[in-house]
């Protein structure tokens, strides 16, 4: 009979062998675990709830796995009609929300339908529809494996943020045992999320009864494929695979004008819709990403695992999708689920030339035509990271204007960028040239080019945009560069040509405007 695996403890049903997991049903079990495991760092357990937000390694985990099965809710009335509710970590979040609705207690209604345990909710400040567990959290009690102590952490000490917390940033240090939340005997919190207001047929800011909001959230989640159906075609999933990425105000303007949903999160940070960005690169619901990994039938941002899937393949698919979005938009996507278990240091790498995956040889033994380079910054931090093998510069680089040959080559998807230099800034002139270059990209069947602008405006990155562009080209993220002419690189003709040659040596096609590409000025406002 096959032994226990992480796959059996996670909703993706991926993950290798483990020793028999410890299922903790009451706090006595916990004390027993602490006694047996001791305090030493290497013995701290991997704590799991329902495994609905993790990608578990194919090689499994060699240490103790503790599964939180503790259940129970106690409620204590407080002044002003509030109720302090203390919940055991293993209690299902959906049961807590249903209990609160039946007691007409407000505060958790927007969390209806989120799978998993109450103890895991503070780990990524679980939330939806404009509300998160942090809005009602009073404190947690947690075992601190560093200190070997049971500690009570008030909400502010949990360092909750958008889909993050100190527990998520410091995996393995804490095991949350109970979660205390403060609920109120009032109508639901003001509805701030437009699709939920639409579902309820109320104005944003209204406060409908708690049960109505709970029902509307569940109905809306059902329609959007956000409920976990363990027997449906999308059973093996972890919900959204990427966080909605933070964007600058300029990026927000640019991408919302193109139709991307942009919202402000609870920390005041602008975020773009990760699902929309994925769709921009050609993904859609039901799409096959690899033989065994697909977008869910209902939404692009959920990937599902199928027969033959592996955790390595899943993380590789994430790395590839993230790379595609970054190449097209300049916006990096980061995974939402956590990578858990023991990840081998030897990585499987993606051959960007053929899109096939290979096990990476040590860097000093790479075949001649390949160089190993890590994704920068690593897609996952801590437990797991991914890498790539990028093709070296071809011996016969493309000449300017040969772009169509390359784009017709099915194994080399085009990754376009445009480069403009204008100092001091002339916003109107830059916008005009950018529009002309974007139109040229459209005419050539290229994706929307990522803009690299040396315009004297301070950016988050201190380096000149040209330097960043060359770096991107060197990493293989850009293989077509659109420019008005080589003069943008330098007014000195020789040094401008030298930059063109440098890009070509990095396997990039430099595409220049011709007189025919000029755009009537009024087209800019069209
Ligand atoms: C269909 C679907 C929809 C989803 N929708 C949402 C959504 O709308 N919003 C949202 O925020 N999330 C969503 N998720 C993600 C997930 O459900 C939540 O993050 C949930 O809180 C995870 O709970 P879990 O018990 O499954 O945690 P697990 O996956 O078991 O663990 C997640 C992480 O928390 C750690 N952990 C678990 N329990 C403890 C504990 N007691 N103490 C310390 N660390 C612990 C684990 O080590 C791991 O690192 C969705 C997932 C699915 C499959």
CATH class of the domain at 237-365: Alpha Beta
CATH-assigned fold name of the domain at 237-365: Uridine Diphospho-n-acetylenolpyruvylglucosamine Reductase, domain 1
What distance separates the N and C termini? Answer: 67 Å
User: What is the average of the pLDDT values?
Assistant: 81
The name of the CATH architecture of the domain at 237-365 is: Alpha-Beta Complex
Write out the distinct hetero groups bound to the structure: flavin-adenine dinucleotide
Strand order of the largest sheet: 5-6-11-9-10
Number of helices: 12
Helix content class = 10-25%
Describe the structure.
The termini are far apart. Strand 15 (288-290) and strand 16 form a beta hairpin. The strands form 8 sheets. Strands 5-6-11-9-10 form a 5-stranded antiparallel β-sheet, with no helix packed on it. It has 12 helices and 26 strands. Among the domains are: 237-365, UDP-N-acetylenolpyruvoylglucosamine reductase, C-terminal domain (Uridine Diphospho-n-acetylenolpyruvylglucosamine Reductase, domain 1); 404-525, Resolvase, N-terminal catalytic domain (Rossmann fold). By secondary structure, it is α/β, with parallel strands linked by helices. The radius of gyration is 26 Å and the shape is globular. Mean pLDDT is 81; it is low at 345-412 and 517-526. The relative contact order is 0.08. It has helices spanning 27-37, 93-102, 166-169, 194-200, 210-223, 249-257, 274-280, 311-329, 403-408, 427-443, 465-474, 493-505; strands spanning 22-24, 46-48, 54-56, 65-68, 73-77, 82-88, 127-128, 131-132, 137-144, 149-154, 174-184, 237-240, 262-264, 270-272, 288-290, 293-295, 302-305, 338-340, 348-351, 357-359, 370-374, 387-391, 416-421, 450-454, 480-483, 509-512. Flavin-adenine dinucleotide (FAD) binds next to strand 2, strand 7, strand 11, strand 12 and strand 18.
């Amino acid at each position: 009979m096959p032994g226990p695996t992480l796959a059996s403890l996670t909703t993706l049903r991926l993950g290798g062998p483990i020793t028999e997991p410890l299922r903790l049903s009451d706090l006595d079990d916990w004390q027993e675990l602490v006694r047996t495991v001791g305090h030493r760092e290497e013995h701290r357990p991997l704590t799991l709830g329902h495994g609905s937000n993790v990608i578990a390694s194919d090689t499994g985990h060699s240490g103790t796995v503790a599964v939180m099965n503790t259940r129970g809710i106690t409620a204590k009335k407080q002044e002003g009609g509030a109720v302090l509710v203390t919940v055991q970590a293993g209690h299902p979040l959906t049961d807590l929300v249903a209990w609160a609705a039946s007691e007409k207690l407000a505060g958790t209604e927007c969390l209806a339908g989120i799978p998993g345990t109450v103890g895991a909710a503070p780990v990524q400040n679980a939330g939806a529809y404009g509300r998160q567990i942090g809005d009602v959290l009073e404190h947690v009690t947690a075992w601190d494996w560093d200190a070997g102590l049971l500690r009570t952490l008030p909400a502010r000490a949990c360092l909750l943020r958008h889909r993050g917390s100190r527990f998520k940033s410091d995996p393995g240090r804490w095991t949350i045992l109970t979660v205390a939340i403060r609920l109120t005997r009032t109508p639901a919190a003001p509805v701030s999320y437009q699709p939920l207001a639409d579902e309820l047929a109320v104005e944003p800011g209204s406060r409908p009864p708690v049960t109505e909001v709970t029902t509307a959230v569940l109905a809306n989640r059902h329609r959007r494929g956000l409920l976990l159906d363990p027997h449906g075609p999308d059973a093996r999933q972890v919900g959204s695979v990427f966080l909605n990425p933070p964007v600058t105000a300029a990026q927000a303007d640019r991408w919302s004008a193109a139709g991307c949903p942009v919202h402000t999160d609870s920390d005041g940070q602008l975020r773009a819709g990760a699902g929309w960005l994925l769709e921009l690169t050609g993904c859609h619901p039901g799409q096959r990403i690899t033989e065994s990994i697909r977008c869910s039938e209902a939404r692009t941002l959920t990937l599902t695992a199928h027969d033959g899937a592996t955790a390595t393949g899943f993380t590789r698919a994430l790395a590839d999708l993230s790379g595609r979005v970054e190449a097209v938009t300049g916006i990096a996507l980061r995974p939402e689920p956590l990578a858990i278990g023991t990840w081998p240091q030897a990585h499987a790498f993606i051959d960007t030339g053929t899109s096939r995956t290979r096990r990476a040889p040590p860097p000093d033994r790479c075949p001649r035509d390949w160089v190993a380079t890590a994704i920068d910054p690593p897609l996952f931090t801590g437990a797991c990271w991914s890498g790539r093998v990028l093709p070296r510069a071809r011996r016969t680089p493309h000449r300017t204007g040969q772009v169509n040959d390359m784009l017709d080559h099915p194994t080399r998807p085009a990754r376009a960028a445009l480069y403009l230099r204008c100092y001091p800034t002339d916003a109107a002139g830059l916008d005009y040239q950018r529009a002309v270059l974007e139109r040229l990209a459209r005419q050539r069947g290229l994706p929307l080019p990522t803009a690299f602008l040396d315009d004297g405006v301070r950016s988050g990155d201190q380096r000149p945009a040209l330097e960043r562009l060359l770096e991107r080209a060197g990493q293989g993220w850009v293989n077509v560069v659109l420019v008005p002419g080589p003069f943008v690189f330098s007014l000195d003709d020789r040094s401008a040509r030298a930059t063109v040659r440098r890009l070509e040596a990095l396997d990039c096609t430099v595409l220049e405007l011709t007189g025919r590409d000029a755009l009537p000025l009024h087209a800019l406002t069209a």
